[in-house]
């Protein structure tokens, strides 16, 4: 790096490459889910007033220590992941090879990377990527049908719901059921001739941010959101995309861009999912909503408790109380978490079954009726 302003070129790249390397050699580890978790945490950090740009002007050596944070490391890695997804792995690798060869044994700055990417792909990286590195924050993308295509509008996403004037050139990936599209939103709003009239019939759905590689939030209009939920119920999305949809809905609810009812509806739609990572998010989100509602909306607590119980009960019944041969530690942990949640929600059958098993154990200390993974219940 030429100067500390460009620290992210070292640290963001190192972070991104560490995940890519592990995923390349050990795909069964699903390490990119961990990358997504870190990205989602950094999206929260970058949506508050105290955030800073990826490129921070450093004028004195004493200022250096304050920039070693998740904005440099994780947001830096995340915008590389966004570019990688948008232009494709092969073109990105070719451009990256040229960049490394060109600046081997020398220093480089952020603009040098954009120039090489621009030369290789023909995309105007030098112009539009400065919007991602020189200002804090990120956009929320609003999408709705308009005529034979879609209308897309951006605004800065702020967790407290306040208004700010950030503007980005956003590389957007989009799926219309089986087809995939991509485009760059360069203005406050624009119209795009994708997912048009011929694709709006039947059960065709639209989802922005394919595989959750974009560093932005998405807000759908009522029609598109309904179809997205239908696709979610039909299991059209990967675990990564399901987690992204849940997290996106949670953040929209917190920022008052969308309703709590919408969040709970999406969680309810996912109640039959059999994936540990998705179920962990559903449990964390719904239990948090329940605890917050006790103080925030006491008149709705009873209804929210019933709904959260309905959401968490199906996966709990599938797992049962007793461990199965060959199941991993994560499933053992999930079983305990779900059962404890139902007890806290006052679910009568779970409480009575727990008491029955505890009573059996008291009278027979050698009984295996309570496994180590359920004794906390």
Automatic annotation (TrEMBL):
Kindly name one Pfam family recorded for this protein: Peptidase_M1
Q: Which GO terms describe its molecular function?
A: metalloaminopeptidase activity; peptide binding; zinc ion binding
Q: Which residues form the Peptidase M1 membrane alanine aminopeptidase domain?
A: 1-132
Which is one Gene Ontology cellular component term of this protein? membrane
- ERAP1-like C-terminal domain location, by residue? 205-375
Q: Which GO terms describe its biological process?
A: peptide catabolic process; proteolysis
The family line of this record is:
Belongs to the peptidase M1 family.
Protein name in UniProt: Peptidase M1 membrane alanine aminopeptidase domain-containing protein
The organism of origin for this protein: Aegilops tauschii subsp. strangulata
């Amino acid at each position: 790096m030429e100067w500390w302003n460009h620290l992210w070129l070292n640290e963001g790249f190192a972070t991104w490459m560490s995940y890519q390397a592990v995923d390349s050699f050990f795909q069964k580890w699903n390490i990119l889910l961990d990358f997504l978790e870190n990205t989602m945490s950094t999206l929260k950090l970058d949506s508050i007033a105290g955030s800073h740009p990826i490129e921070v002007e450093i004028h004195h050596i004493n200022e250096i220590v304050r920039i070693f944070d998740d904005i440099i490391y994780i947001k830096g890695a995340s915008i590389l992941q966004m570019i990688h997804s948008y232009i494709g792995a092969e073109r990105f690798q070719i451009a990256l090879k040229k960049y490394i060869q060109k600046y081997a044994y020398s220093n480089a700055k952020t603009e040098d990377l954009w120039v090489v990417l621009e030369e290789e792909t023909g995309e105007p990286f030098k112009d539009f990527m400065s919007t991602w590195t020189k200002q804090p924050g990120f956009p929320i993308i609003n999408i709705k049908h308009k005529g034979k295509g879609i209308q897309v509008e951006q605004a800065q996403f702020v967790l407290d719901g306040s208004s700010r004037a950030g503007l980005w050139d956003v590389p957007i990936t989009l799926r219309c059921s089986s087809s995939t599209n991509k485009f760059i939103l360069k203005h406050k709003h624009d119209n795009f001739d994708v997912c048009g009239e011929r694709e709006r019939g039947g059960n065709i759905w639209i989802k922005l941010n394919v595989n959750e590689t974009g560093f932005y939030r998405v807000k759908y209009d009522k029609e598109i959101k309904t179809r997205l939920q239908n696709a979610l119920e039909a299991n059209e999305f990967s675990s990564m995309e399901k987690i992204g949809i849940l997290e996106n809905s949670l953040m929209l609810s917190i920022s008052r861009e969308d309703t709590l009812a919408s969040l709970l509806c999406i969680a309810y739609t996912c109640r039959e999912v059999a994936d540990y990572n998705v179920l962990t998010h559903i449990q964390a989100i719904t239990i948090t909503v329940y605890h917050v509602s006790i103080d925030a909306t006491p008149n709705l607590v009873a209804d929210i408790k019933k709904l959260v119980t309905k959401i968490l009960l199906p996966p709990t019944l599938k797992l049962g109380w007793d461990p199965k041969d060959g199941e991993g530690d994560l499933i053992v942990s999930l079983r305990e978490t779900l059962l404890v949640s139902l007890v806290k929600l006052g679910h009568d059958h779970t409480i009575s079954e727990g008491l029955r098993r505890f009573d059996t154990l008291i009278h027979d200390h050698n009984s295996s009726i309570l496994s180590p993974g359920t004794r906390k219940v």
